[in-house]
Amino acid sequence: MDIIPSDSRQARRQARRTLIAQAVLSEGQLRIEDLTARFGISLMTAHRDLDDLAARGVLRKARGVVSAAPTSLVEASDLYRDTRQAPQKSAIAALAARQIDAGQAVFLDDSTTVLRMVPHLAALVPLTVITNALTLMGAVKDMRDLTLLGLGGQYHAWCNAFMGPQTTAQISRLRADLAIVSMAAITDGRVFHQSPDMAATKRAMLDAAGRRILLADHTKFTRHALHSMGGVEDFDLVVTDDRTPADQITALRRRGVAVQIAAVEG
């Protein structure tokens, strides 16, 4: 039986759903009854978990069987993204957290790399965090001396975040010291995302911030996405990991962008 962390109920549920998603993505297809035995849960709980994962675009349910969704949907989901390049994302997040000063107001996006900054935020209070990401809201809402401004709008289950015109309108009425975001791909000096609404939301955060930081692990330099939100020159700093090719780092610096490289242990 797979082991589920025993902290809060919400954390256990999230951990279980992540493990279920990983199991199905690894094996391609599983019977729902097999999942109940594997994770020690009731059939009703299994269906609730699978309905959530299906809404996020990770899995598909059909006649007692659950299978992996098409690759494009899976790769866009927050649960899938959180399992990829985990050591690099953690190292990048730790380095990026050093850019925050106590007392600042900071836009943090819905990306899983930014989410990994949460363990470092308690040491930076007082702090105001502005985000559209429900997962991040839940992670910081009880932090002492941290003010949370949650952005609303149209909810999108696949990323567990709010986006759209209402979200960008709220952002436009704010002015933060710093915006820290990540994107799906960096191609020919431009930054892209699969979702036009997500690209617009992140762009709005940049436009409403005094300083802008992009978090990008090495895989972002080999990927492609459809919707551009601007050039790398729009950022004051790019934080990447030590597996990013030297020519990509050189190209960034030639465009006048500061780069910091996070060393990954092991």
Automatic annotation (TrEMBL):
One of its GO terms (molecular function) is DNA binding. Residues 13-68 form the HTH deoR-type domain. Keywords: DNA-binding, Transcription, Transcription regulation. It comes from the Bacteria. PROSITE patterns: HTH_DEOR_1, HTH_DEOR_2. This is DeoR/GlpR transcriptional regulator. It comes from Paracoccus hibiscisoli. The lineage of its organism: Bacteria, Pseudomonadati, Pseudomonadota, Alphaproteobacteria, Rhodobacterales.
